[in-house]
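tokens incoming
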């Protein structure tokens, strides 16, 4: 269902359910990739808060700033030269959550993207599978595989996950366009907001008619936690979830809303200055039926999410 801007926020978390889930996590062990990233670090923080044992896959070159306060609560596992089969055979891991992603924004060759989004998680999946780890959760994208090397590599790994799901719960979570405070400024939403807060003279944009489902980061993390908590009950097999708000908004409306909330009256939004990329998808809808089956709904409207993001970015920049 397409809708422009919406402000209603009707869902409330059931604290008794969340508390029960937190208690259950204390007795479980999780292996998380992408723990130093925007999404993974927030997931790790919630797992640590509930007392779970958490292994975090870390590269030697990783910036640990997002999890610096959690270093005493997690066990770092260095990815360089790691034998995944040996590692999982010696550890009682209940669930792997693969959040690491290479968007391919800083390179021209697809090899790095393939290594990060296909080869590395496949090694991880094979090692976990051989050791009998019961659950493997993969964060995927809703983007069509034909868009770029990033979306193609993510799609290819989801196919491998399905192949390996004859003895495990293979859970693929396709995420819509998430945004929020603290995200990398190479991301679309954060890039636009930063430019608006700087009062840049001009922002070059496409015509902006394409529609996207923008979801606030806190809703994405809570959705993942809900899936984590109910993953074992899903049983062996391939399970495909989509996470978004279920409502699309045009890029033009999103940017104009951000400009209004920023209080920016100076920046020219130059819609049409950039051509649509080849194969541009004009509308990407979300099927929330599987998320509804585990009693999850988004809490934050676009208006509220943008205001929270902008408020924190203003505080950081001031």
């Amino acid at each position: 269902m397409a809708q422009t801007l919406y402000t209603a926020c009707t869902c409330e978390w059931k604290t008794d359910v969340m508390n029960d889930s937190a208690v259950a996590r204390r007795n479980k062990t999780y292996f998380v990739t992408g723990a130093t990233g925007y999404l993974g670090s927030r997931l790790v923080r919630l797992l640590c808060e509930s007392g779970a044992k958490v292994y975090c896959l870390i590269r030697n070159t990783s910036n640990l700033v997002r999890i610096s306060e959690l270093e005493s609560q997690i066990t770092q596992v260095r990815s360089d030269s790691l034998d995944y089969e040996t590692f999982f055979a010696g550890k009682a891991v209940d669930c792997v959550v693969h959040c690491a992603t290479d968007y391919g924004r800083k390179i021209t060759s697809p090899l790095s993207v393939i290594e990060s989004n296909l080869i590395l998680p496949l090694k991880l999946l094979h090692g976990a599978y051989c050791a009998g780890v019961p659950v493997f959760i993969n964060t995927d994208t809703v983007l069509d595989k034909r868009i770029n090397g990033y979306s193609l590599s993510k799609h290819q790994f989801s196919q491998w996950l399905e192949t390996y799901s004859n003895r495990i719960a293979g859970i693929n979570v396709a995420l819509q366009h998430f945004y929020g405070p603290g995200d990398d400024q190479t991301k679309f939403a954060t890039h636009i907001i930063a430019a608006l807060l700087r009062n840049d003279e001009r922002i070059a944009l496409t015509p902006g008619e394409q529609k996207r489902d923008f979801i606030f980061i806190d809703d994405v993390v809570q959705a993942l936690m809900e899936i984590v908590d109910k993953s074992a009950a899903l049983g062996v097999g391939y399970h495909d979830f989509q996470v978004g708000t279920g409502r699309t908004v045009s890029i033009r409306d999103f940017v104009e809303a951000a400009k209004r909330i920023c209080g920016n009256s100076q920046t020219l939004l130059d819609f049409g200055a950039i051509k649509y990329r080849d194969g541009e998808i004009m509308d990407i809808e979300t099927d929330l039926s599987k998320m509804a089956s585990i009693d999850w709904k988004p809490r934050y409207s676009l208006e509220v999410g943008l205001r929270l993001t902008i408020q924190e970015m203003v505080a950081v920049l001031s």
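note: The longest strand covers residues 135-141.
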